[in-house]
Amino acid sequence: MAQKQKVEPHVGRLGYLQALVTEFQETESQDAKEQVLANLANFAYDPSNYQYLRQLQVLDLFLDSLSEENESLVEFAIGGLCNLCADRANKEHILQVGGIPLITNCLSSPNEETVLSAVTTLMYLSSPGAGSHPELTSLPVVQCMLRFSLSANTRLRNLAQIFLEDYCSPTQVAEARSWQAHSALGIPLPRTEAPQQS
């Protein structure tokens, strides 16, 4: 009886993911890019794909897509990063290549899902308590979370409250509150100087 050849079960998956990446890079169609990026973000949810996604540099593709003007591409990219950053190697890559500013920029998106994924991604990238990457809990980020904690949107409000309680020190929250007392929506008010006496 002839022995069946052993076929690597993941070779097909890697090939499929490679085809998606190639399609994303070569297509001119925004609709096709959105569809491919959405598919890659969905594949990022499965830990068995992490190695392949790193090998194909999908993390960098997601990070690059955060700068796109197309809100759907940004939404799918931050969703993919959110799915991937629970893994230590992926988290370290995002931190090492300077992904934090790209992610924090998503906090000002008009798209609710983009903002929710950005907050969750920042939480995954943070270590509760001490911050090895202080930009994760910088003053503007904490101020933003304070505003989100007052949101009518329950999901956003709850995520922001968890972020403030679990990832920020009481001192950081107090400082952000102090700054917000002197500003409108995070924009500093003009300072008035006392008139000079002659």
TrEMBL record:
Domain of life: Eukaryota
Signal peptide: none
Entries under InterPro entries matching the protein: ARM-like, ARM-type_fold, Armadillo, ARMC7
Chain ranges passing through the membrane: none
Cited PANTHER family: ARMADILLO REPEAT-CONTAINING PROTEIN 7
Name of the featured protein: Armadillo repeat-containing protein 7 isoform X1
Organism: Octodon degus (Degu)
